[in-house]
Specification:
Length: 357
């Protein structure tokens, strides 16, 4: 079956400073994948972590290893074969606890595998000792009946070498085969990690492209919002101008009232003059003057009435214009509120995407 991953997590990898043996040196710039691997051919367990194409953890787990939690999110273990101490920083306490539990399980499994391997080595060493004992019988002085029997039973020294030699060659072939299989597995694993890295880089590029598109959309929304704000400012200015126009209309209304009062006074004066003309014939000349004045006044009255009509029309136009401006201002305000709501949704989606990445 070869070497297979049995548990995978992500963490920040650190190694102890070899000079001080106290400070931690980061082995990765960001959180990387840390995996437990089981080699069925060798019946061994390893912790492996690769950052890009660089192997930063290759630790074979043995029975005497200890994983220690030094904080709520940090743990460490010492590897005597690598002559270093590895440290892992997790994003949560649950991940650290899960990794520690898996470490204990793998260590127990490695211990059992070592005991089984030790039993097999004891049996093999017993067989080799028996063969060595046969050689000792051959080399121990003159031949005795027992030694002759043993020699005839086990064969001569040349025959013994002939029998042991193929076994050693077979062991050497097995070791070479295991080395080739391990090299092939490592190459396949590195190739797989490279493919994963390329896929991650491709996903990152796609995310960057989407981020650029969203940034352009947000920029367009901001520009549109700025244009709407400018339009609202212009409408507010028009409203202020409409207010000033209304104030001028009010002033004109007061002026019209004043002119009407003056007109009434003039009419009263004309009436008095007419009475005086009827009563005093000698004032006919003055009456002519007054008549001319009256004509002038009447013409002025007509002019004032026409002006008053014009002012009434202007006042009505101003009122209609003001009502139209208010309606347009209300409509633009509603459009601005909708655009601001859309901008808020875009910003919320952008923040949530950043958090997911």
């Amino acid at each position: 079956m070869g070497e297979q991953p049995i548990y995978t997590t992500r963490a920040h990898v650190f190694q102890i400073d070899p000079s001080t043996k106290k400070n931690w040196v980061p082995a990765s710039k960001q959180a990387v994948t840390v995996s437990y691997f089981y080699d069925s051919t060798r019946n061994s367990y390893r912790i492996i972590s690769v950052d890009g194409t660089k192997v930063i953890i290759n630790s074979t787990i043995v029975a005497n290893m200890m994983f220690t939690k030094t904080s709520q999110k940090f743990g460490q273990w010492a590897d005597s074969r690598a002559n270093t101490v590895f440290g892992l920083g997790f994003t949560s306490e649950q991940q650290l606890s899960k990794f520690a539990e898996k470490f204990q399980e793998v260590k127990e499994a490695a211990k059992m595998a070592r005991e089984k391997s030790q039993d097999k080595m004891d049996i093999r060493s017993t067989r080799i000792d028996l063969n060595n004992d046969t050689f000792d019988f051959k080399d121990s002085g003159p031949a005795s009946p027992e030694s002759k029997q043993a020699s005839s039973f086990n064969g001569t020294d040349d025959e013994k070498i002939f029998k042991v030699g193929p076994e050693m060659l077979l062991m050497k072939t097995e070791l070479e085969s295991e080395a080739e299989q391990s090299s092939s597995r490592w190459e396949a694993e590195v190739q797989s990690l490279r493919e994963k890295n390329s896929r991650l880089v491709q996903d990152l590029n796609e995310s960057s492209n989407k981020m650029d598109v969203w940034k352009k959309q947000v920029s367009a929304c901001k520009e549109e919002s700025d244009a709407l704000r400018q339009k609202i400012a212009e409408l507010e200015l028009q409203c202020q101008e409409a207010g000033q126009e209304q104030q001028r209309n009010a002033e004109l209304s007061v002026r019209v009232q004043q002119l009407e009062a003056e007109l009434r006074d003039k009419e009263q004066e004309v009436e008095n003059l007419r009475k005086q003309a009827e009563i005093i014939p000698q004032l006919m000349a003055e009456c002519d003057n007054i008549t001319s004045k009256l004509q002038v006044t009447e013409s002025r009255k007509v002019e004032l009435e026409s002006r008053m009509d014009v002012l009434h029309v202007d006042v009505e136009d101003s009122r209609q214009k003001q009502s139209g401006v208010k309606a347009e201002l209300k409509k633009l305000t509603e459009v601005l509120d909708a655009k601001i709501e859309e901008l808020h949704d875009f910003r919320h989606g952008l923040s949530r995407l950043g958090a997911d990445n």
